[in-house]
Amino acid sequence: MVKLKAHIGIIVFFLILLIGCRTGRNEDKQGNVVFTGHPEEIMAGNFDLKIDIDSLVGKKNSYAFGILDSLSGVLQVFDGLPLLSTMEGDSVVVSTNLSGPVISLVYCETTQWSQISLSPSVANTEALVGFFQYNESLDLDTTLPFIFLIEGVAEQLDWRIVPDTLKQTDPLGNDQSIKSGKGTITDKYIEVIGVYSTDNNHGFTSENIPIHMHFKTADGTLAGHIDHLELGPEMSLRIPKSN
User: Fold this and answer.
1) Where is the domain boundary, 109, 134, 165?
2) Can you tell me the distance from the alpha carbon of 77 to that of 97, in angstroms, rounded to the nearest whole number?
3) Is there a domain that residue 46 lies in?
4) Dist. CA 29–CA 230, nearest whole Å
5) Contacts of 28 (CB under 8 A, 6+ apart)
6) Contact at 8 Å (CB) between 75 and 8?
7) What confidence tier does 10 reach under pLDDT thresholds 50, 70, 90?
8) Domain span at residue 190?
9) What pTM was estimated for this model as a whole?
10) What is the pLDDT of residues 89-132, one digit of tens each?
11) Which of 80, 111, 182, 199 has the fewest CB atoms within 10 Å around its CB?
12) How far apart are the first and last CA of the chain?
């Protein structure tokens, strides 16, 4: 059993100075996206970087997602509300209880949004990428990263908490397998926080899919990383508003 571990706390300027990992400064148009901790290094066992982030909690207009210490689960922050998703045995536990550090994070603070009703043609993750890249009416600079939000009834969502093959080392130096958490939900009302970025040097997106997304259900009983999303016909999108 993996114990629930997740303490949150951040001051953005200290985070930027300590991590040296600032990306996407475009405050006038698309917000300010900060990436910290490279997921590939963390998956390889480098847990040296640990972040405490208490200023995120309860702070309106703050949005984030990341990886919990020892890869025990994932974090999502929606408008200052943190949701920590971990595995206890075969069960997913979603909590706002805070204890322990975060080791990888995408963070943004945005106050102004444009809301868009997505057409049925934006049917899945891949179509969403094309919508961002080729829809000039969005007035987005897709060479810069930006946070986006999606809300509504999803037709299908494949989710994950931790990878299948993940292992962690206990205090005695023995490798312990972490119970995988993954599944599929259908026809559920969800909220999604995602980042679009064509710069994959930070490790959260790739050349094939320049999008990384997390979600929560309406009742808050399930939250985590999105592997694939089939959008419903009446879902809405919010993107940073151009000034």
Assistant:
1) 109
2) 13
3) yes
4) 29
5) 243
6) yes
7) very low
8) 113-240
9) 0.79
10) 888 999 887 666 777 788 888 888 999 999 999 999 999 999 99
11) 111
12) 49
